[in-house]
Amino acid sequence: MSEMMQKYIEEAEKALLHTYNRYQIVLDKGDGVYLYDIDGKKYLDFVSGIAVFALGYNNKEYNDALKNQIDKLLHTSNYYYNVPAIEAAKKIKEVSGMDRVFFTNSGAEAIEGALKAARKYAFLKDGKNDHEIIAMNHSFHGRTFGALSVTGNPHYREAFEPMIGNIKFADLNDFDSVLKCVSDKTCAIILETVQGEGGIYPATEEFLTKVRALCDEKDILLILDEIQCGMGRTGYMFAWQKYGIKPDIMTTAKALGCGVPVGAFLMTEKVGQNSLVAGDHGTTYGGNPFACAAINKVLDLFKQDNIIENVNEVAPYLEKRLDELKDKYDFITDRRGAGLMQGLVFNRPVGEVINKALEKGLILINAGAEIIRFVPPLVITKENVDDMIEILDSCLESL
């Protein structure tokens, strides 16, 4: 590590609130699927800012779209209309099949809006405010109070109790556990279509089908969190589209803006007409022209550059190469995931492996202490996969 990098890291540790245990590099720029630190060292990136940079780094068309918007208008507030927001709403409705959209600044804010919409929907039906929400164990929905309340990891919640209340937890892919939580107060069921932080667990078609039928029977709203698994990552624009199990409310963020902080929650017309109204919800920055210019260009480039087709071509190859590692090493016990959202499960902590990979120019991240997560840019090639496997294999040989 250079003296300059060491100095920056020391300054950061003095100034930034220590809520992250950061890797000891200072990143400077990116190009394609590669990142570079301030010393010029090159890294193959299989994290993409935690499933954010779907288009890779330094995409000229994306950059130019943002530069053009900067010269026009950055912000108006939601008291006025702006063209980028109107166009972005139309495009995201088209690719999602949903009917109404509210733009936020982050995934956690999208969850907050989804929870409020569900409770308002139930309140308008019976005038009561004791409604319950069913969430999943091992889920992760964000760090704000509402999002944390439905995050199924007690360790994340315990220091910040009490949460918003009336939350019950079931197990993903265990429909009986969901049934045990249902009461006449249940207003919503929320789950990640593919659990991310909890260990890369996809929801099964059978489970989603039964939950959808239950929600239809009892007029319970199904909220699907597609913040990490959406935007093409699983080979469909949104993971639920593989099974055709449409939610009543859906959240998205991360790759929606490909680097610009933006999220959204979307809903069916039925929910839109029977939940939030003027004065119920708002945000100063959400849906501003700059953020929506990013969304517009992202959705255009997904179509123009056949991003989802590339995922469906490269993902099976990534699975094959990861399975080869699993078969080679006894301490790798499983490989699971969907599309370009994969996890290798170890029988020991993976921190040492991730640090070794970083030293050798490969950026990886964990999903729990014993799982390495692979969420690369969606523009990666099979050659990139081979390069990643070669570095990772060399790190595993010495374990």
Shape: globular
Radius of gyration: 21 Å
Distance between termini? 24 Å
Main beta sheet, described? Answer: 7 strands, mixed
Strand order of the largest sheet: 4-12-11-10-7-5-6
Oligomer description: single chain
Overall pLDDT metric: 97
Report low-confidence residues grouped into runs of 5 or more: none
What does this structure look like?
This protein is of the alpha/beta class and 399 residues long. It has helices at 3-15, 48-51, 60-70, 83-96, 107-126, 145-149, 154-157, 175-181, 205-218, 269-273, 289-304, 307-328, 351-359, 382-396, and strands at 27-31, 34-37, 42-45, 100-104, 132-136, 167-170, 186-192, 194-195, 201-202, 221-225, 249-252, 263-267, 332-338, 341-346, 362-363, 365-366, 371-374. A seven-stranded mixed β-sheet has the order 4-12-11-10-7-5-6, sandwiched between helices. A four-stranded mixed β-sheet has the order 1-2-3-15. It is globular and about 60 Å long. It starts with a helix and ends with a helix. The mean pLDDT is 97.
